[in-house]
Design brief:
Hypothetical protein af1432; 24 helices; 466 residues
């Protein structure tokens, strides 16, 4: 599509000289994802915020995190990102598919980040994902007549840098000390004041390491928790698995549909998920906890099945890691409730930034660090601990790296297909190669997920509290 008419008109009226640069294509001969391209070239992007007074436009660098608290302090308002409906209305009104990074392009009060004025040349989001606007810094400054220039962003690079693994507990305890008035205690579980593991979860963890455990042992443990038993049976009875006949018991679910290993890990994931209350708040447009868990587990199930048997990691460990991949979000909401609310608003205003970068900006640690450390303290398998801790690090090469890479690939595919919230980016061919996962089979697995969305939503609905 061409550059939006209002953008051409604004540039022409202000006598701004500019060029257009085409968005490159990726290995699959399709356009590089818009967020990824803006970030790669350090272009300026734009965001709409609103409150009861009205809407405000902000322009900042795509390789930075918009600090919405700084915006609110500067304007003495309580702005937050506009919702999806308002955003779509903007696109329709201005005939664009992103927000042009030009002040007053929609006649709104505009804030421009100070860092953009330090550049000799700028690339700007044009409102058309197939091309960017290129201008001289001096030309861009001509557009700032009615704009407010201020410091409202933080570079993302430093926020995305992972901390050394050996300092995990110390980092978490420091964050707790900085952001709460709780006394730092000996153990992390006490420090975070989380509910203890349920008896069911503890029994399943012990069963995992029992070489003599059999179907009757697992069925007996799950059956003692009526809610958990109902959830496992509901999962097995879902049209997603197309099981013949009616699933009447845990024994049926194990023998006829899911298998011992899957039920063991499924029950453990469900039991852990019930340890902490689901947060009532959440970023606009983000799937609820159990929706994310179900989609991720199902995607990883498909990816592992596509890997040749001789290279395939443990299905049970991979499935459990996927089911628990977002467990840290529950902990964040439980331990840092005021800051989790801030996280939600920042996430809405920074759809191009990862949750981990936003969390480091707010409290200095990430959900992945907290979740993996708790799993370690709860004596969960090392595969799960590593998978959770390194799930956002595609370059990790340590033991059990396959589990982390599976979550990374699954998350990237879900985002690319618009199922999960977050920046869309290309997935390196090297990751597929390391996993022994043919890209075409990974894409075929995603087609199956999309076609099964109704069944997966049904499973997630059965897991969520009414």
């Amino acid at each position: 599509m061409p550059v939006p008419t209002n953008v051409e008109t604004l540039l022409s009226n202000q006598n701004i000289r500019y060029d257009l640069t085409a968005t490159p294509v990726n290995e699959g001969n399709s356009l590089v994802w818009h967020d990824e391209h803006l970030r790669n070239v350090g272009a300026a992007r734009s965001m709409l915020l609103q409150d009861d007074i009205g809407q405000v436009q902000v322009v900042f660098a795509a390789d930075s995190l918009l600090d919405i608290s700084a915006v609110n302090r500067h304007l003495d308002r309580q702005l937050h990102a506009v919702g999806e409906q308002a955003l779509q209305q903007f696109y329709e009104t201005h005939q664009c598919n992103s927000i042009p990074a030009l002040p007053q392009v929609a006649g709104l009060l505009t804030l421009v980040d100070q860092s953009l004025l330090q550049r000799d040349n700028l690339l700007l989001d044009s409102g058309d994902e197939s091309q960017l606007i290129q201008v001289l810094g001096s030309e861009f400054q001509q557009t700032l007549t009615d704009a407010i220039v201020c410091d409202i962003s933080t570079p993302l690079t430093a926020l995305e840098k992972a901390q050394p693994n050996e300092d995990q507990i110390q980092q978490i305890e420091t964050a707790v000390r900085n952001f709460t008035e709780l006394r730092i205690k000996q153990r992390l579980e006490e420090t975070l004041e989380l509910p203890p593991l349920s008896d069911t979860a503890q029994r399943i963890i012990k069963l995992r390491v029992d070489p003599d455990a059999d179907i009757s042992d697992l069925a007996q443990i799950v059956s003692t928790d009526p809610s958990l038993a109902a959830q496992v049976v509901s999962w097995a009875a879902s049209p997603y698995y197309s099981a013949p006949g009616k699933i009447k018991s845990i024994h049926d679910a194990i023998v006829r549909v899911l298998g011992f290993d899957m039920v063991l890990n499924l029950a453990l994931g469900l039991a852990l998920g019930k340890t902490i209350s689901l947060p009532k708040d959440g970023p606009d447009g983000e799937l609820q906890y159990w929706q994310q868990a179900v989609y991720m587990a199902a995607t990883i199930e498909g990816l592992v099945a596509a890997i040749p048997r001789e290279q395939r990691p443990s299905f049970g460990m991979a499935y459990l890691t996927g089911l628990l991949h977002n467990f840290g979000a529950l902990v964040m909401a439980e331990v840092f409730p005021p800051y989790y609310s801030q996280y939600c608003r920042l996430s809405e205003a920074n759809p191009h930034a990862s949750p981990q970068a936003i969390e480091r900006h707010l409290i200095g640690i990430t959900r992945d660090q907290i979740a993996s450390t708790l799993m370690e303290l709860w004596n969960m398998p090392e595969e799960v601990v590593v998978g959770l801790r390194e799930q956002s690090n595609p370059f990790y090469q340590g033991e059990h790296a396959a589990y982390a890479k599976l979550v990374y690939v699954a998350s990237g595919l879900l985002r690319q297909h618009g199922i999960c919230r977050g920046p869309k980016h290309a997935i390196a061919e090297s990751l597929f190669h390391e996993l022994g996962l043919p890209r075409d089979k990974a894409e075929a697995a995603m087609v199956n997920i999309i076609e099964s969305s109704e069944e997966l939503e049904h499973i997630a609905g059965a897991l969520s509290p009414s």
